[in-house]
Design goal:
549 residues, alpha/beta, 8-stranded mixed beta sheet, 5-stranded parallel beta sheet, 18 helices, 20 strands, globular, binds ligand NA7
């Protein structure tokens, strides 16, 4: 329980979520800072994203050796990844291992969804309510609710009338599903759809893919772990992690060249080919530094990808439909794939263009398009994405000072300082929140950085007889302006629909949801804030603490 001077609270900190963020937050705050913590997760176990996204083909897009915790050397040494890019089951096993190793589960209430988070100005505490009808009071609230954890609601009518099964990639059933011989439909060709389609195509009796916007998918280059490479990585983990944290997107890649336009077409092609063959995000982030900033540079890589897609698809009409056009590469999150384009060479797979002929509705028999064509199906997979970054926070009904709802504060898009806190919402930390590097920084490292920052802040408060931290309105305003300005310098606003910009969700404000200055600049800013004794934050003492002093 909480300490005597704070007896009107139930816990020092409430943590929401038990994914990568929640697990580390419990360990850090409970075991290192000695706080009394309680965590909640709507899931039946740890894992977050990797608990819910169990669809066939679900796999990480960053090399597993990098997409993992760095905070404990022994953990890094003892865990062995079997593949370069591991699948969902193995990542979930890893997170369960971490939870066991640090005895995290005893501090987590599973199958419990947070339904309200309300600040009490007079008492300087948060009250967290759950769908079990319970409420808990805590000094600090740490949201580890994730960035891609609220699936987009289907925006075509009739889904409930469908006579077959409907599956959501972001909330996939736990039991093994058999698709052999069945007529399967997939709506959506983002990362999730592309991974699922490649697998489903292998067994489905017939697979119909409903594509609105083709994507620039490139090869992941997965392979079994090379024992020699693994040994080298383990021997050099510290240097690897340091190099990752110095890189724009949190990966220890070092071969990026300044400009695609500064080299000859032959040299450029050599670079593209090398990165394509090596797989992963190398083409995106380790080829030329200007592809996300300069349309002409972007055109060179976009042309290259289109050419490679056409080579892989036998039917020219299907190839033309699969080749993305009209928006720059990288402005929608680029998917990685294994044999995705080859799936369309099977007789059992059809691609349907639902941009030209949009989905009218789901009927009891299948999917009907605007021109009246009906595609009959036994099951329908919705890979239609997420209400990213702000969605998970807004879903918790957060109300801050003076009864002001976060939804009201963010009516025109997120307003944060450092993507970690918001003015008027004291002691509420949003791990990998909107306007932080989050999804554009290797997630486990982004998470660790945020939790380390907030833990340091709590220690600093404690050492100075304080217990409340809140960004100033001015610091928040400047940060919002800065993040928007950074986005304007990129090609991101040119994307027709991209969850990076929030415009994949009807009615959501079109604002950049991610800090685009890169992890090193962001980390430097955070260091500067700490060196300035939490510059941009107001630090105060609650009435309880002041009275106890
Ligand atoms: P994404 O990348 O947002 O992809 C969603 C897909 O669903 C995309 O192809 C959308 O087409 C499509 N979609 C959404 N609504 C519709 C409707 N109404 N009609 C037709 N098609 C639709 O989500 P993912 O789950 O694949 O990936 C999310 C992230 O998870 C990913 O970026 C990684 O970071 C991990 P659109 O492009 O909007 O035309």
């Amino acid at each position: 329980m909480a300490t005597a001077s704070t007896s009107h609270i139930d816990h020092d900190a409430i943590i929401i979520g038990a994914g990568f963020a929640g697990i580390y937050a419990v360990h850090k705050l409970r075991d290192e800072l000695g706080l009394d913590v309680l965590a909640f997760d709507a899931a039946g176990g740890v894992g977050g994203t990797w608990y819910w996204n169990r669809y066939p083909g679900a796999r990480v897009d960053i090399e597993s050796v990098h997409y993992s915790y760095s905070f404990d050397e022994q953990l890094q040494q003892e865990w062995h990844w079997t593949e370069k890019f591991c699948g969902q089951a193995e990542i979930l096993a890893y997170l369960n291992h971490v939870a066991d190793r640090f005895d995290v589960r005893r501090s987590v209430r599973f199958n419990t969804r947070v339904t309200g988070v309300t600040w009490d100005d007079a008492e300087t505490v948060w009250t967290v309510t759950t769908d079990r009808g319970e409420s808990y009071r805590s000094r600090y609230v740490i949201s580890g609710a994730g960035t891609l954890s609220v699936p987009k609601q289907p925006d075509f009518p009739g889904v409930d009338d469908f006579a077959g099964e409907v599956y959501l990639t972001g909330n996939w059933p736990h039991e093994d599903l058999a698709f052999a011989g069945k007529r399967v439909g997939v709506i959506g060709v983002g990362s999730s759809g592309i991974q699922a389609i490649s697998e489903l195509a292998k067994t489905a009796g017939h697979l119909t893919v409903f594509q609105r916007t083709p994507n620039y998918a490139t090869p992941i280059g997965n392979a079994p772990t090379d024992p020699g490479e693994q040994a080298r990585n383990k021997a050099n983990y510290r240097a690897i992690r340091d190099a990752s944290r110095r890189h724009f997107l949190g990966l220890p890649y070092t071969e990026v060249q300044p400009s695609a336009l500064a080299v000859s077409p032959e040299e450029r092609r050599k670079v593209f080919e090398d990165r394509w063959e090596r797989g992963g995000f190398r083409l995106f982030i380790d080829s030329f530094a200007d592809i996300l900033f300069d349309k002409a540079a972007n055109d060179t890589v976009a042309d290259y990808i289109r050419e490679r897609i056409r080579e892989r698809v036998t039917d020219p009409a299907t190839a033309a439909l699969l080749a993305p056009k009209g928006y720059p590469y990288g402005t929608k999150r680029p998917p990685l794939e294994t044999d995705y384009y080859e799936a369309y060479n099977r007789d059992t797979v059809d691609l349907v263009d639902v941009k030209a002929n949009r989905i009218d509705r789901v009927t009891p028999r299948g999917v009907r398009l605007a021109d009246g064509t009906e595609h009959e199906l036994d099951c329908l997979v919705l890979a239609t994405g997420f209400d990213a970054c702000t969605g998970p926070l807004l879903a918790m009904n957060i109300t801050g000072r003076n009864g002001r709802a976060l939804a009201e504060h963010w009516a025109d898009g997120p307003q944060t300082y450092l993507g970690l806190m918001a003015a008027g919402f004291p002691n509420l930390f949003m791990i990998t929140g909107p306007q932080s590097p989050s999804v554009l920084y290797n997630m486990p490292l982004a998470i660790e950085d945020h939790i380390d920052f907030l833990a340091e802040a709590i220690i600093y408060l404690r050492e100075n007889d304080l217990d409340v931290i809140e960004p100033t309105v001015g610091a928040e305003r400047e940060w919002v302006a800065h993040t928007n300005e950074l986005a304007q310098a990129t090609l991101l606003p040119d994307s027709p629909t991209s969850w990076y910009m929030g415009n994949n969700i009807p009615g959501k404000p079109r604002r950049v949801l991610v800090y685009l200055g890169g992890a090193p600049a962001y980390r430097a800013k955070c260091d500067e804030v700490v060196a300035g004794n939490y510059d941009g934050f107001d630090l105060t003492a609650s009435r309880t603490l002041a009275a106890a002093a």
